[in-house]
Amino acid sequence: MPSLECDPDAARDRLEAAGAEVVAGNTEYERWRAERGDATAVAYDDTVVVQGTNPTDLLALLRPAEGGRAHVYFDGASRGNPGPAAIGWVLVTDEGIVDEGGDRIGETTNNRAEYAAVIRALEAADAHGFDEVDVRGDSELLVRQVRGEYDTNNPELRERRVRVRELLERFDRWTLEHVPREVNDRADTLANEALDDA
């Protein structure tokens, strides 16, 4: 459950400016509550706590965009291929993990899950306002397809590759590299935990 040390009044202003509905808190200690997507923010005196299955829906609005560089890790998992599938992703800066998530995405193939994971991770990095991203995943196929080293014959994967390229172009600088599974351990764990929670 992420928490931010911030001015609750300034955080409220940012949420309202983004169209989020802010209501009174449920207890005498809560200053206000806001919901957006699958996340709920609760403000206390000098902290805002974000709860829910997708805290990024609110975290990116609560943190003022500061630019900078993030390491983006992603992983998709499918048990069956096709079968039940999930994604995991992590955003890391010099200060540690900024954001992360793991979600079930229904039934699909492993390659489609990998694409869903990198798309979700890049959307989160963009929402956080990063200028530069170093993207890392253990799907060599996806990495080579997005970089144009492999053809993408499957129409659905071709669409997803286009979406990844569109997202990458939002950043001033980006890299995309294949890494061994052990380097991608946190994203892999989040994807598998999401599958296990079903």
TrEMBL record:
A single GO molecular function term of this UniProt record: nucleic acid binding
Domain RNase H type-1: 66-196
Gene3D superfamilies: Ribonuclease H-like superfamily/Ribonuclease H
Domain of life where this protein originates: Archaea
Family annotation (Pfam families): RVT_3
Protein name per its UniProtKB record: Ribonuclease HI family protein
Organism of derivation: Halobellus ruber
Lineage: Archaea, Methanobacteriati, Methanobacteriota, Stenosarchaea group, Halobacteria
